[in-house]
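Listing S7. Sequence submitted for prediction.
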Amino acid sequence: MYAVNATDVRKHWSEVIDSVIREKPTFIKRTRDCVVLTNEALFSEMLSAYKFSAIKHIEDDGSITLSLREIDLVANAPTEDEAKLLLAKDILDYANDYYNEFAYWSSAPNRKPHIPYVLRAIMLDDIHKIGECISCQAGKN
């Protein structure tokens, strides 16, 4: 494998960081543990494959309800754009709560698949950007 010993990384920390920022991720091995060190731009690019999708329902009162497929979140607003922003806010709130209690939520079998979406939302860290990542498909009423 490509893993570098943690002791060598400690000795050459500045060079390792420069390499990670300018060249490629680094795999670091410490006893039985292995971690990957990467820069923010590459990490964001890796997460860009994870999209948010919602089912759109038009309610009897004309309002729009969006139901997120990846995470059990629902938002309702007078327009689709407003519903997307509300849903984006809920996604970011959920992501922050999840991340703050990461050991707990990531160990739950039904919540483990949320990890890349949580990290994507945290990386975007803006409800407008998250809202732009939500694609909507018409649902059946």
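Caption to Listing S7: primary sequence and predicted structure tokens for the chain studied. The first strand starts at residue 4 and ends at 5. The helical segments are 6-11, 13-22, 40-47, 80-100, 102-106, 115-124, 127-132.
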